[in-house]
Amino acid sequence: MVAILDALHRTLHRSLEHPFFRFLLSILLFMSSVALVSDLWTSLTAPSVERISPTMWAVFALIHGAVALEGIRLRSVAMFYAGFILSATSIVAALVRG
């Protein structure tokens, strides 16, 4: 896995080190806890969760994609996996509650 991460880092190095990406990543990681609170509350308290808005799926994808890209930038396998684990957990929770 480390070899794949190193190859991705070499390919994406210029983009990942760009100041705008780092700024955008900071905003997205901050948003992760703030933006998901209302949907999480609704998901946990509603008797049935029949749909999650496409906007929230887009927010999920942006946040978890950013975590995976930051893992590539830092060459951190744990952070790279965290992006995918967070996505999978969100999807499973929505399916189980739905």
Automatic annotation (TrEMBL):
Keywords: Membrane, Transmembrane, Transmembrane helix. The chain crosses the membrane at residues 20-42, 54-72, 78-96. It comes from the Bacteria. This is Uncharacterized protein. It comes from Candidatus Lloydbacteria bacterium RIFCSPLOWO2_02_FULL_51_11.
